[in-house]
Amino acid sequence: MTDLETDRGRPRADLRRTAERYVSTPAEGVESRHAFSFSSHYDPKNTHFGALLACNEEVLAVGAGFEAHRHRDVEILTWVLEGALAHRDGDGHAGVVRPGMVQHVSAGSGTTHTERNVGGADVPVRFIQMWLQPDVFDTPPAYGLRRVRPEPVDRVLLASGFARDADSPALRLRRSDAALHLLTAGPWQPLPELPEAPYRYAHLTRGSLGYRTVPGPQGAGRSMEPGDSVRITGSAFADPTAGPDGAELLLWEMHSPLSYG
What's the rounded mean pLDDT across residues 234-254? Predict the structure, then answer.
């Protein structure tokens, strides 16, 4: 378990800077920055948060990418910041993910895919990729891709496994108590109200953000820059407000931690 999960009674906003991430170069032209233990890097105190297994900042140079590799029983969400990412898998799905689009790969019983900087590109592709544990296993692989156009101040539901969201345009997760939201705010504007959940994971993708560690005058002020993340339990992470260039925040709402066995 993580430190936060052994102390759930105390609200906490655990800020992690992008510079603190473990950096790997798994292939030529590929740089990955990992929020959690990943591949050959293992920290027993930092293996996951809630049901979130990975949150990687990826940069693929022109012509670079991940060759065919396999996943099983994991929900993979990708949000592109710059450039374009080409996906192709062994189940016949193919797509190009661009800024303003979210991709969902539900690996299920097993899928093999490639991820590359799109052919003909003259700039790197930068993206965030997040892995979530499902709560149903050994299912047929599935794929989804959608474009979103948030308002200047908005909370958009990108993906969800909740029954409450079954009729929404959100991509369908195979975890019944988790959802991924996109929150946006203009310069100096407060973010829209965040969903309540025992586990919330916030990753700032653009702009800057200020917040209090807990509500009220006892809450210390903190700030976030792009790539920073906060692991939130309870009522921590109060009054989030965008800085001079606005803010874009990916937020996981999770109501249970990893399941074992």
Answer: 96
Coil, helix or strand at residue 6: helix
Task: Please name the amino acid found at residue 19.
Answer: A
Burial of 15 (C-beta count, 10 Å sphere; 0-12/13-18/19+): middle
CA distance 41 to 86: 27
- What pTM value is reported for the model? 0.95
Closest CA to 60 of 2, 121, 5, 148: 121
For residue 260, how many other CB atoms are within 10 A of its CB?
A: 5
How far apart (Å, rounded) are the C-alpha atoms in residues 149 and 169? 12
Which structure tokens are listed for 159?
Answer: 């993906």
- pLDDT tens-digit readout, 222-238: 999 999 999 999 889 99
**153 close to 189: Cβ distance less than 8 angstroms:** yes
Q: What ranges in the chain are assigned the alpha helix state H?
A: none
Name the burial class of residue 130, with classes exposed (0-12), middle (13-18) and buried (19+) by CB atoms within 10 angstroms of its CB: buried
CA distances from residue 95 to 55, 88, 112, 244, 246 in whole angstroms, order as listed: 21, 7, 14, 35, 30
Q: How many CB atoms lie within 10 A of CB 167?
A: 7
Distance between CA atoms of residues 120 and 76, nearest Å: 25
Q: Which residues pair with 155 in a beta bridge?
A: 183
The CATH class of 4-254 is mainly beta
Helices and strands, number each (H, E), in the chain = 0, 19
Tokens matching residue 145: 């891709």
